[in-house]
Design brief:
Order of helices and strands: HEEHE
Number of domains: 1
Shape: globular
CATH architecture: 2-Layer Sandwich
Radius of gyration: 12 Å
Strand order of the largest sheet: 1-2-3
Distance between the termini: 37 Å
Number of strands: 3
Oligomer: single chain
Number of helices: 2
Length: 81
């Protein structure tokens, strides 16, 4: 059974990535035991960031500072527009 805090953190992470205009529809995004995992293909939504690595790290670091997640693992393939 999934931890309700992890489910809430996963939804918050997806929301933050959407706000940053990062498309994660081809990626597995989840939080397990407070650690965020993003695996798969990540690309910008039209008008989104030009440097995906920086934008993704900023989004995850922001959630880490808020205490939503403890750590994050990015195992992504970055695609351009």
């Amino acid at each position: 059974m999934s931890d309700p805090l992890d489910i809430r953190a996963s939804k918050h992470l997806r929301s933050e990535l959407g706000k940053k205009l990062i498309d994660v529809t081809q990626a597995d995004v989840r939080v397990l035991h407070g650690c965020a995992y993003i695996r798969g293909v990540v690309k910008p939504i039209v008008g989104g960031p030009t440097d995906l690595k920086v934008a993704l790290n900023q989004a995850c670091s922001g959630l880490r500072q808020k205490g939503t997640i403890k750590e994050y693992v990015l195992d992504c393939v970055y695609r351009g527009q």
